[in-house]
Design goal:
Distance between the termini: 53 Å
Strand order of the largest sheet: 2-3-1-4-5
Order of helices and strands: HEHEHHEHHHEHHHEH
Bound molecules: adenosine-5'-triphosphate, magnesium ion
Number of strands: 5
Strand content: 5-15%
Radius of gyration: 20 Å
């Protein structure tokens, strides 16, 4: 059993959780980079099989505080995959139209189709995170959403979607370091968001919201993986490993030539 996988109902106290740990990978940074390359060599043909088979649908959800590394994870874990068949969907503050629908509407619209792998950079989980922390809706509304999310995911799974959810966890000091880096590096200044600096003040509320999200929405068929992300190399290798192992578990094969095509000849 993967030690980073959250069991259904598991109590996680993120306020006291060590995001700096690196004992999950023996051999340190260099070995991890080699392992990530090795995993990529597995990921490429697996994604091709997914695309060729046009049967399974794969959803990868990435959640995490600002600067936790959602963008970096996407860049490094999926480096070199065939862009045909892979798609990223971002979730920002809902538009007026999106807000006028139920909170799952915009997510449902961008779910993976057969043969596709879709990465959610943030997701419908914002509707039990930022919405709760900022009190955008009354408690009785967001409280009911854990169950509705679980039911939504159950339907997707029964319709052929494989769901993997990663919670990238850094600690508050690491976030400060990364935001400071963004401010002082001209190649990263474009990422600086004044709101992120204010969000930091709500760190403890976010940790409570994340903890409850993990406890209530990690299910046997759509588990959360809580990834220590202070060290980028560890984060990448842990995420990649889960994705590769899960795709291997689908036991995909290239589709056989159907009988009606067997008489085809190149002339
Ligand atoms: P970056 O690391 O580049 O800043 P980001 O994921 O933070 O990437 P932003 O463009 O800053 O991207 O926009 C995301 C913002 O939208 C977040 O602050 C998030 O909390 C907010 N958001 C997402 N979904 C919702 C929602 N349902 N309700 C309110 N705010 C939301
Ligand atoms: Mg942002």
């Amino acid at each position: 059993m993967n030690p980073y996988r959250i069991a259904s109902g598991q109590i996680v106290r993120l306020n006291r959780w060590n995001a700096d740990q690196s004992d999950g990978f023996k051999g340190g940074q260099e070995a991890a980079l080699r392992e990530l390359q090795r995993l990529s060599l597995h990921l490429w043909p697996l994604q091709e099989l997914l695309y060729a088979g046009q049967r399974h649908k794969v959803l990868v959800v990435l959640q995490g505080m600002d600067a936790a590394g959602k963008d970096g994870t996407i860049r490094r874990v999926f480096e070199g995959v065939n862009p045909q068949g892979v798609r990223v969907a971002r979730f920002r503050k809902p538009s007026e139209e999106e807000s006028s629908h139920d909170f799952l509407w915009r997510a449902h619209a961008v779910m993976p189709a057969s043969g596709e792998l879709v990465i959610f950079n943030r997701s419908y989980y914002e509707d039990v995170l930022v919405v709760r922390v900022h009190g955008l809706l009354p408690k009785k509304i967001w409280q009911g959403r854990y169950r509705r999310i679980n039911e939504f995911e159950r339907i997707l799974i029964e319709e052929g979607t494989t769901i993997l959810k990663f919670c990238l966890m850094i600690d508050r000091d690491e976030q400060a370091k990364r935001l400071q880096e963004r401010l002082s590096d001209p190649t990263k200044q474009w990422k600086v968001d004044a709101a992120d600096l204010l969000e930091r003040k709500r760190w403890p509320s976010y940790m409570r919201a994340y903890s409850e999200m993990l406890r209530k929405t990690s299910t046997p068929r759509a588990p959360w993986y809580l990834i220590p992300s202070n060290r980028r190399w560890l984060r990448d290798v842990l995420v990649s490993r889960v994705i590769v192992e899960t795709l291997q578990g689908l036991r995909m094969r290239y589709p056989a030539l159907p009988a009606r095509k067997r008489s085809l000849r190149v002339t």
